[in-house]
Amino acid sequence: MTAVLEVDHLTKKFHDFYLDHIHFSLEKGCITGFIGTNGSGKTTTIKSILGLIHKDDGKIRIFGEDAERNERSIKDRIGFVMDEGYFYENLTLQEMKRVIASAYTRWDEKSFLSYINRFQLNLQQKIAKLSKGMRMKFAVALALSHHADLLIMDEPTSGLDPLVRSELMQILIEFVSEENKSAFFSTHITSDLERIADMLILIDDGKILFEKEKDELLESHVRVKGDNNWINEETRPLFLSLNQSHFGFDGVTNQKNAVLRAIPGAVLERTSIEDVMLAYVGGEKIAD
Ligand SMILES: Nc1ncnc2c1ncn2[C@@H]1O[C@H](COP(=O)(O)OP(=O)(O)OP(=O)(O)O)[C@@H](O)[C@H]1O
After folding, report:
1. Is 145's C-beta closer than 6 angstroms to any atom of ligand 1?
2. Which residues does the UniProt record annotate as the domain ABC transporter (predicted)?
């Protein structure tokens, strides 16, 4: 498959954070989820890709072209939605739309109005009066109304109620069902990805820990439960994460066969994206 976006040794240093020569690529026609806990570097990566912050080192190629040298033509083909607002609060939706629409050569007013209808937004309303969910819907309507080939979104579902989140996921599925469309979005709400992601990239403390097909990831990792008697020096290293209580152990492994050989009484369960993510990064369960 062709890569729609290639991040090559991207590096960015803040006072106490280091995006450490990260490297990954997105396949055309896929929805890729960019996951990681708070402060892991998702926004910094996305802003660097979009040229919204200055990177220290590395190369970004989008649609096969150098992103810096071809910024204008590339941005014309990207729809982006950022976590923090980039709207002028005093404008109405209609006025803000005019500002943004003028930046794109393939602006599609009909498509924009259909999203405005679908999301039940009022074009005469002031941006400042929008709720977080309405703001996100407006941003999505703008991002999808200029025939973008790549949608890049930073935490588009955070703070949205389950109904709006589900609607947004449906829109993403519709978007990539068209030929040559791809979507990349960051989230720490991994349940959104169970249904719609094709690929997953995990970042932690400025480093990419894995870049995998979702189905392959969920098949190659299992949750294992059993009696504490089975846990010893030989079996412990077979787990990526392992919790023990007086009821028994509960762990995640990517060595299913070795675990079954070493622990014949083990109970295997399907794992979730969240279990796998936490197994790699450690820490508490993240609430939806
Ligand atoms: N402009 C900045 N100046 C200094 N440090 C920054 C700046 N922007 C981000 N950081 C730091 O870089 C680290 C990564 O932040 P980033 O926003 O990329 O994480 P994130 O994965 O998007 O987190 P979240 O899920 O909380 O949005 C954090 O420690 C943050 O404090």
Report:
1. no
2. 5-230
Q: What is the pTM of this model?
A: 0.91
Q: Tell me, what's the ipTM?
A: 0.96
Three-state secondary structure readout of 125-193? CEHHHCCHHHHHHHHHHHHCCCCCCEEEEECCCCCCCHHHHHHHHHHHHHHHHCCCCEEEEEECCCHHH
140 pLDDT band, cuts 50/70/90, is very high
> Quick one: which atom of ligand 1 is closest to the CA of 36?
21
Q: Is the CB of 72 under 6 A from ligand 1?
A: no
The answer, yes or no, to whether any atom of ligand 1 lies below 6 A from the CB of 17, is: yes
Determine if ligand 1 sits within 6 Å of the CB of residue 12.
no
pLDDT digits (tens, 9 = 90+) for 49-101: 999 999 999 999 999 999 989 989 999 999 999 877 678 999 999 999 999 99
Ligand 1 centroid vs 224 CA: distance in angstroms? 34
**What distance in angstroms lies between residue 39's CA and the mean position of ligand 1's atoms?**
5
CATH architecture of 3-217: 3-Layer(aba) Sandwich (3.40)
Residue-wise pLDDT for 177-203, tens only, equals 988 899 999 988 888 899 899 999 999
For the chain, percent of residues with pLDDT exceeding 70: 97
CA of 155 to the centre of ligand 1 (A): 13
**Ligand 1 within 6 A of CB of 54:** no
What average pLDDT does this structure show over 224-242?
94
